[in-house]
């Protein structure tokens, strides 16, 4: 096997990981071993070998197929991908110049720049005229910039939900030009966009029923995984077939080095806190729906919603429509007050075996006070997991993200794919 093929397979695994497909070192080694036993001139065999070793969940099949067809291409097609990525970068730079307040660029996430770049020329002109008018005036000062940013974000969110804009598959760029060009093409593959990879905030109400079916399917799969959780063991308990087969490869497939596992006795106790402020309510709807599907195998799971106060959620009777129709949510966020109420009224839920999950974009009033409250909570429990819908490559721009990362294992969670992967890794 030529070195260039080995390198290409490793780079392809890197692309899959950037797309959220859990392919690690062991899967890469399996793929390198598998391709030694096929006809490399037969594309179908090559595709089947990589798919069999790198994909563990059928829900990732469409994304794998898209990545395969876009990565393993001839040089002229790769040049077109690079040109398309350069054109996109130039477009984003132009968008940043157009979205300025008093010659200062607005602090907008990549998702908002993508939304702006997809607008018609007429709509973009309306944004530019608004920014020009708001930047002028005798009493207009730079302190109005955050207000203008919120207005622009709100307008872009309106276009997201009311316009037929194409949805982009969330990807994590690597900084390597060629790989990022492939990821860029995959992210814009409209044949690939479905509810699994779509940003939860952009899922329309008419798709709720289909999204609910998908969530139930994912929740059942994770529930099954949790209910039969095993850990590696040196004692002769139960054979770990996958690890035993992998260990037997060096013996020509003979199972000489058997691996074992034993059941984990204790299931985690989950305490879920969901932000239901205006920008977060859709993410909370889908997350609570997902967690309600796990309630049967995690009977000691408790859930709360918070904005400026805390309210208990009945997971067994939860409905997305009920949460959306509540007039108590959709306002600002005050995590500090909510954690105070949790400590005062529900302190019995904070146990050494409790896994505390927070779903929020970290944008809260009194962030320093909230940090101190979270720090106090963490001393009483097992661990803190933070699900953050903001794009991971934008986290460094937010001081609150850096602040809460000191106390929590933070996961990007803007799509059902992200949510499923994070919970499977942390709970399964």
From TrEMBL:
Q: Which Pfam families match?
A: VWA_CoxE
Highest taxon above the source species: Bacteria
**By its UniProt entry, which PANTHER family does this protein fall under?**
BLL5662 PROTEIN-RELATED (PTHR39338), BLR6139 PROTEIN (PTHR39338:SF5)
Name the UniProt record assigns to this protein: VWA domain-containing protein
Organism of provenance: Dehalobacterium formicoaceticum
């Amino acid at each position: 096997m030529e070195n260039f093929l080995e390198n290409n397979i490793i780079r392809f695994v890197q692309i899959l990981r950037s797309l959220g497909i859990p392919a690690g070192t062991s899967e890469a080694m399996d793929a390198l071993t598998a391709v030694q036993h096929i006809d490399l001139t037969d594309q179908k065999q090559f595709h089947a070998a990589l798919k069999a070793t790198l994909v563990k969940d059928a829900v990732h099949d469409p994304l794998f197929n898209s990545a395969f067809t876009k990565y393993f291409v001839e040089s002229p097609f790769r040049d077109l991908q690079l040109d398309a990525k350069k054109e996109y970068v130039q477009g984003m730079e132009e968008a940043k110049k157009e979205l300025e307040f008093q010659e200062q660029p607005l602090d907008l996430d990549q998702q908002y720049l993508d939304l702006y770049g997809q607008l018609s020329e007429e709509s973009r002109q309306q944004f530019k005229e608004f920014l020009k008018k708001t930047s002028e005036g005798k009493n207009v000062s730079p302190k109005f910039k955050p207000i203008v940013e919120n207005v622009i974000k709100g307008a872009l969110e309106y276009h997201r939900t009311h316009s037929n804009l194409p949805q982009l598959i969330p990807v994590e760029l690597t900084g390597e030009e060629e790989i990022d060009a492939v990821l860029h093409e995959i992210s814009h593959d409209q044949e690939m966009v479905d509810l699994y990879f779509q940003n939860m905030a952009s899922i329309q109400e008419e798709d709720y029923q289909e999204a609910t079916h998908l969530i139930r399917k994912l929740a059942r799969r994770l529930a099954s995984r949790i209910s039969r959780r095993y850990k590696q063991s040196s004692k002769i308990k139960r054979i770990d077939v996958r690890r035993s087969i992998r260990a037997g490869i060096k013996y020509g497939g003979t199972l000489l080095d058997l691996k074992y596992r034993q059941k984990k006795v204790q299931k985690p106790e989950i305490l879920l806190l969901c932000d239901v402020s205006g920008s977060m309510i859709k993410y909370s709807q889908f997350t609570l729906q997902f967690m309600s599907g796990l309630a049967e195998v995690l009977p000691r799971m408790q859930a709360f919603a918070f904005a400026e106060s805390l309210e208990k959620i009945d997971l067994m009777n939860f409905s997305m429509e009920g949460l959306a129709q509540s007039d108590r949510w959709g306002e600002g966020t005050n995590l500090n007050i909510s954690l105070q109420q949790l400590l005062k009224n529900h302190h019995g839920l904070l146990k050494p075996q409790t896994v505390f999950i927070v779903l929020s974009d970290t944008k809260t009033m009194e962030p320093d006070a909230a940090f101190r409250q979270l720090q106090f909570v963490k001393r009483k429990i097992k661990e803190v997991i933070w699900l953050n819908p903001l794009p991971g490559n934008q986290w460094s721009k937010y001081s609150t993200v850096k602040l809460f990362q000191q106390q929590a294992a933070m996961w990007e969670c803007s799509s059902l794919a992200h949510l499923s992967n994070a919970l499977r890794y942390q709970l399964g």
